[in-house]
Amino acid sequence: MARNATNELLQKAKKSKSDEFYTQLSDIESELQYYKSHFVNKVVYCNCDDPQISNFFKYFALNFKELGLKKLIASCYREQVRDLFNTKEDEKGFFYKYSGTEDEKTIPSSNDIVYFNGDGDFRSPESIELLKQSDIVVTNPPFSLFREHVAQLVKHKKKFLIIGNINAITYKEIFKLIKENKAWLGINLGRGISGFIVPEHYELYGTEARIDENGNRIVSPNNCLWLTNLDTSKRHEDIELTKKYFGNETEYPKFDNYDGINVNKTQDIPLDYKGFMGVPITFLHKFNPDQFEIIKFRKGNDDKDLSVNGKCPYFRILVKNKRLQPELIENR
Ligand SMILES: C[S@@+](CC[C@H](N)C(=O)[O-])C[C@H]1O[C@@H](n2cnc3c(N)ncnc32)[C@H](O)[C@@H]1O
Predict the structure, then answer these.
(1) Atom of ligand 1 nearest to the CA of 197
(2) Stretch 55-74: mean pLDDT, rounded?
(3) Tens of pLDDT, residues 4-23
(4) Could you state, in order of their start, the residue ranges of all structural domains in the chain?
(5) CA angle centred on 262, ends 256 and 265, rounded to 5°
(6) Which of 134, 171, 175, 236 could make a disulfide contact with 45, Cβ separation 3.0–4.6 Å?
(7) CB-based contacts of 197: which residues, under 8 Å, 6+ apart?
(8) Does the Cβ of 134 fall within 6 Å of ligand 1?
(9) pTM of the model
(10) CA 285 → CA 2, 24, 144, 184, 282, distances in Å?
């Protein structure tokens, strides 16, 4: 028992702090405005969300009719606290189903919610049962379980719109989905997500940390993104290319270990280069799959990080322009 308890304490300490970042309604509204057409007659499941406090639940309950939703489900995980001081093991997770009728509440009371038999972990059979009843999952999952959360959505072939850390792009499982056009970045990124509500015990850090007019403690890590497989028209807008490779070759050195050129900024992608180009990961925010093809992440032919004259620029993604204008190629 003592060893188990120690292990669990260690596990807890290891957990990412951002597991306790709660999303603001304003950030949800500013992203969701681009996806409205996807929700008509759909069942939305917020599977890491206490319906009594989650702004995801609140957003969908308040906009239920406007979006034309069929049903809204939110489920809350109850961490099983079993440390040296607290031996309570019987806390159950719970969920609430909302179908937009008059007698339902947009903030459910404890009488309205339904208890799971278990803790409400999104990986539990009970939560998976709710997932099967749903069309689209929208939430901010615990960052430490982000890979597992996405893998489960893909396995069950669900549509999703979720918040994660920008670093998630560099996870091989996530990058693979992006490369294969099975997932992509949403509209807001970094500073585009203004901040998260943190609990009382959480230290307010950073110059943008604040307490809002409702007394919520907010931190702005500026390092998050939305990941989705819901299409938007923005995703089909071309990146405007103005620079040329031919005549400016020295600005675009070749990689030592791959037949391609290094491009330091997305806006500097040359419009006349038909080969492979290594671009920064921020390219993905502007990526239009009709314009570019993603080839490979980070590594050269020798399976080492892409390098230029022995130096490795920070993570590069190899891409290729899909629709080079023929007259530009002929003129080179
Ligand atoms: C980053 S917070 C976001 C909460 C809420 N989705 C929001 O955006 O405001 C992650 C939430 O996931 C919950 N959680 C942690 N582990 C979980 C699990 N295994 N299954 C479901 N939820 C979990 C945490 O209790 C926490 O409320």
Answers:
(1) 9
(2) 98
(3) 544 444 444 445 566 889 99
(4) 2-232, 249-330
(5) 155
(6) 134
(7) 21, 22, 23, 24, 216, 217, 218
(8) no
(9) 0.91
(10) 48, 22, 23, 8, 6
Given the DSSP bridges, would you call strands 43-46 and 71-76 parallel, antiparallel or unpaired? parallel
- Copy the structure tokens of residue 281: 């990961």
Instruction: Give the integer Cα–Cα distance in Å for 300 and 23.
Output: 38
CB 276 within 8 A of CB 301: no
* pLDDT tens digits, one per residue of 148-207: 999 999 999 999 999 999 999 999 999 999 999 999 999 999 999 999 999 988 888 888
Residues 170, 315 contacting (CB under 8 angstroms): yes
CATH architecture observed for domain 2-232: 3-Layer(aba) Sandwich (3.40)
Report the mean per-residue pLDDT for the chain: 91
d(CA 134, CA 58): 18
195 lines ligand 1 (CB under 6 A): no
Residue in 14, 13, 16, 319 with CA at minimum distance from that of residue 164? 16
Rounded distance from Cα 20 to ligand 1 centre (Å):
7
Nearest alpha-carbon partner for 60 in 50, 52, 71, 75: 71
